Amino acid sequence: MAGEILDNKGRGEAGWHWPAIHPEGRKFGLIAVAVSLVFLVLLDWGIIGWPLMLLSVGVFAFFRDPERVVPQGESAIVAPADGLVTQIEDTEPPLEMQIDDGSGYPGLPAGQVTRISIFMTVFDVHINRTPVGGTVRRVVYIPGKFMSAELDKASAENERQHILIERSDGLRLGFTQIAGLVARRIVPFVKPGDIVAKGQRVGLIRFGSRVDVYLPAGTDPKVMIGQTIIAGETVLAEIGERGLIEGISQ
Q: Using DSSP, how many helices (H) and how many strands (E) does the chain show?
């Protein structure tokens, strides 16, 4: 059951099962199945129908929505997306997250912070989750291009959506959903004023994309470029903790 409180004392049963399919994707999967059945049953064109049936399975798999065990430490910032860490660099947060938007709530402070970029292929889970719990202060959609999400300039030129979360202690953290070559729709699940728990689902991007996370000032990442991470489970950073980490490529 989604949201059920679990412990580590042996509750539950072991065994693989197909993850739930998010409602946003069920209609696309059913449409693909219906089209494949037309070719298989009505037209008897198996050469087209069977590949379409395989495509239907792929569509359902794309919108899979597995449960995640979210770290509950107060200082932990968790990954908002499944995928590969492709960039870690110091930069200014997007202007849309800094300027006064008339809401009465401040944006992110100006100054250099660390940005972690997570690239999602079409094979990754595309449900995005909030890195911290708190109140949604901004959801800013910006139309743009559809260049490869792996490019650095995709952060400023591609279609994207900024989400700003404010914790109960006043700390603010922003992250950005970025469309890519194949992705053509960013779907939000939240709006300003919503209260979200850490690791809660906040949106998805259809068919390949990227998510950028802007760490608070004075916080260094605990992940490395080339690392594969899991939304809602991998700890990207601990708030206020500094220090270089090193890994071994294997």
A: 4, 13
